[in-house]
Amino acid sequence: MNAELEAEIQQKYTTETILDMRRWTDKLISFRLTRPAGFRFAAGQFARLGLPLANGGQVWRAYSMCSAVYDEHLEFYSIVVEAGQFSPLLAKLAPGGQVMLDKKALGFFQEDRLPAGRDLWLLATGTGIAPYLSILRQPDAWQRFERIILSHCVRDAAELSFQREIAELREHPLWREHGHKLHYLPVVTRDAPADMLDARYPQLLADGRLARRAGVEMSLEHSRFMLCGNPQMVEDTHRQLMKMGYRMTRQNAPGHIVLENGW
């Protein structure tokens, strides 16, 4: 690589330092990076992170921000894929390690793309909960909706990360008066604890269990949905919602659903 090309590539990213690394399970980690002064993002967006390879190359992956738009750090949530190129390298790092950060945040997975409604349903699988943590760390959604249902679907109960942080959201001083609006619905699909929802979202939507557990009746008039997680969940859940009459939000045609694939 010639010096001119290398300089051009470097202008597109900064090198940031890991401030904290939390290991939720042997396959799930969250970490905080220093935040460059000029980095801006909207809640729900993602950033491209890079690591150097032993052969002199680089590997890049997209991660949604968990942190608030006003935080001085950037926080991310990752699954460690054993055969992956990026996440095993990331999992070996500790505070003080360095990660490359693309200077421009990307994506259109934002709550304000939905028209106003009564109920906001935030449906996530796995690490797809990340953008919702960022969205719920700003006042907008709390003010626009009467009820916010955050549901996190995982395979094993040990993967229900960020429960303390979710509980603390209700007490944040910027929207404490709206804190009662948040309903947290964990879903575990394998060996679920007693009295916990234990099926995939399409089934829970089709048989009405998700709505009953939330105590919230779904309707075309009042319900708005955000979907984030593995592509199969997003596709299947989107298809089920369409069977129920809900439609995607488009630029010139407001609907009921916005979606993002977690990987």
TrEMBL record:
According to UniProt, the reaction catalysed is:
2 reduced [2Fe-2S]-[ferredoxin] + NADP(+) + H(+) = 2 oxidized [2Fe-2S]-[ferredoxin] + NADPH
InterPro entries per record: Cbr1-like_FAD-bd_dom, FAD-bd_FR_type, FNR_bac, FNR_nucleotide-bd, FNR_type-1, OxRdtase_FAD/NAD-bd, Riboflavin_synthase-like_b-brl
Q: Does the keyword NAD apply?
A: no
Signal peptide per UniProt? none
- Keyword vocabulary terms for this entry: Nucleotide-binding
Among CDD domains, the record links this protein to: FNR1
EC identifiers of the protein: 1.18.1.2
Q: What is the top-level taxon of the source organism? A: Bacteria
Q: Which residues form the FAD-binding FR-type domain?
A: 11-112
Family to which the UniProt record says this protein belongs: Belongs to the ferredoxin--NADP reductase type 1 family.
Q: What is this protein called?
A: ferredoxin--NADP(+) reductase
